[in-house]
């Protein structure tokens, strides 16, 4: 009985702690100092339609890129088994359709995870680049920053809203992913 109660208390404590960790992910907010920004991919629906999570990321990216015209952007995301296009190609098209010049956009279309998004995007950066801006949904930024830092990158962020319709599911899943990342490292 006591062991079961202790396990429940530990699980609740970890749930709360991981939630607080995720809240910290939205800082430091980007201010245009980084010359490169990486937009992390998310689900693409049939016909190349960005999921609401991805659309929110792209809207934030467009706004930021228009505010800071010197910033170059890497759109990062491969093609999942249930996607008919790469996430990067959908993001590229979205940015172009919203007034971002092609010369400012680099596509990374091999990645299948957040870690690969960052690893493969880093390969596309000039060697001397250490400071980057990451765009993702608010719940996802803590883990993205942690992974970027393991790759020797300094990070500031642009936080996109998480769609209310999937917020509870995504935040629960992200807690598990964040704990796994802290334990395994990626």
Automatic annotation (TrEMBL):
Database matches in Pfam families: DUF218 (PF02698)
Top-level taxon of origin: Bacteria
Limits of the DUF218 domain: 36-168
InterPro entries noted in UniProt: Cell_Envelope_Assoc (IPR051599), DUF218 (IPR003848), Rossmann-like_a/b/a_fold (IPR014729)
Protein name: YdcF family protein
Source organism per UniProt: Lysinibacillus pakistanensis
Phylogenetic placement of the source organism: Bacteria, Bacillati, Bacillota, Bacilli, Bacillales
């Amino acid at each position: 009985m006591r062991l079961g109660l202790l396990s429940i208390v530990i699980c609740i404590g970890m749930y709360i702690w991981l939630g607080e960790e995720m809240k910290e992910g939205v800082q430091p907010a980007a201010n245009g100092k980084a010359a490169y920004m990486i937009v992390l991919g998310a689900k693409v629906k049939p016909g190349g339609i960005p999921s609401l999570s991805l659309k929110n990321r792209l809207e934030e990216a467009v706004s930021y890129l228009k505010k800071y015209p010197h910033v170059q952007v890497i759109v990062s995301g491969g093609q999942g088994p249930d996607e008919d296009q790469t996430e990067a190609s959908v993001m590229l098209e979205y940015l172009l359709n919203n007034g971002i010049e092609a010369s400012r956009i680099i596509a990374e279309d091999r990645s299948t995870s957040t870690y690969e998004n960052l690893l493969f995007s880093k390969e596309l950066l000039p060697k001397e680049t250490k400071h980057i801006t990451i765009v993702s949904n608010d719940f996802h930024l803590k883990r993205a920053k942690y992974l970027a830092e393991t790759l020797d990158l300094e990070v500031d962020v642009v936080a996109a809203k998480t769609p209310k319709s999937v917020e509870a599911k995504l935040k629960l899943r992200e807690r598990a992913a964040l704990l796994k990342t802290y334990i395994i490292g990626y």
